[in-house]
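Risk register update: the risk that structure generation would not scale has been downgraded. Supporting records follow, first protein first.
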Amino acid sequence: MRLNKFLASCGVASRRECDNLIGQGRVTVNGKPATLGVDVGGDDKVLVDGREVSLKKNEYYILNKPKGYLSAVKDDKGRKTVIDLMPRDVGRIYPIGRLDYDSEGLLILTTDGALAQHLTHPSNNVPKTYLVKIEGTITESGLNPIRSGVDIGGYVTKKCKAHIVETNKEYTKIHVTITEGKNREIRKMFEAIGKQVSLLKRIKVGELTLRGLDRGCYRKLTPQEVAYLMTL
């Protein structure tokens, strides 16, 4: 494994920051100063500032994200992030995928880069289901443009699933399942057909749900759930 990736996997810092540590001579491998681009194996002894580091077991969490939190590790404007909802000793964990500031619901956080890559790579078409509440009414046939794909500003969305789950004169609730994750995609999809989204909540990734998790709460994923996510 490349040394900067090894150090990042150990929770030392990001790969770029680890490159800086190596360049500053603060990292040794088997007692010798490390060089950029070197590979390390399981028998190598790696020290940073004289302290040995080793690979940590990956951690996996599911969080019911409330509104008003960024899906980020930190924010240069001082806004709250989803990391503020996690245990203080959780380590270098990060959220997978987008769930914007005004949206809520299911968010997976992990230290596992391979899982993050799998769930976010466009070619894997991982299904994500949202509860969408719009102002006013719409018919099932009115959702056909959403299902077929709409232009959201120079990009036509992929085909998706959508159906009404509740409606009255004031609002309509819809379940929408998409397999991509463009910035504010669902909000833009409904804006394209003249509808305003007043609530957006991710309720499923594949068949993984928020069952039993109150808003703002989290729990660890089971090994079986992690294995399932890798099959999506």
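Supporting record for the second protein:
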Amino acid sequence: MGNESASDQFEALDACHRDITRHLAALGALAKHIETDGIDDQARQQAATIEAFFSGTSRQHHAEEERSVFPILLSSGNAELANAVRTLQQDHGWIEEDWIELAPRMRAIAVGNGWSDPIEFQNYVEVFTELMRGHIALEETLVYPESKARWAQAVAQRRSS
């Protein structure tokens, strides 16, 4: 898991999930704001912040999971766990596809361009948000706990050797 300890790595991944959840809430609020009030300075600024986060930090987070968390679980010999990881990998692809549709709309809003229909924008936001929340739930309830347990077990075995 790189130069930092696995414990630090998991804390960073967990913290990123909290950041993603906050940005998803802000994205939902932005969609509602645009629907009711249109694109104003607040909407432009919020769109720029949210777009930068999901285009940068969130994508890096998924790449880190693919690199550091998923491989050991895929080779664990546990079919249920491997299937869950494959679902998460598929989610990463769907999330990326959804973001490719949503990001240009976010950038347009950030510069004050209202070419995207507010109702259509709301629909894109809802699909993206639902996928991201379901994805995080699966990671936090199954994959991260299992990965953390395997890491702790490996550390304990090294200490007893």
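The chain is about 85% helix and 0% strand. On this basis the risk owner (M.S.) recommends closing the item.
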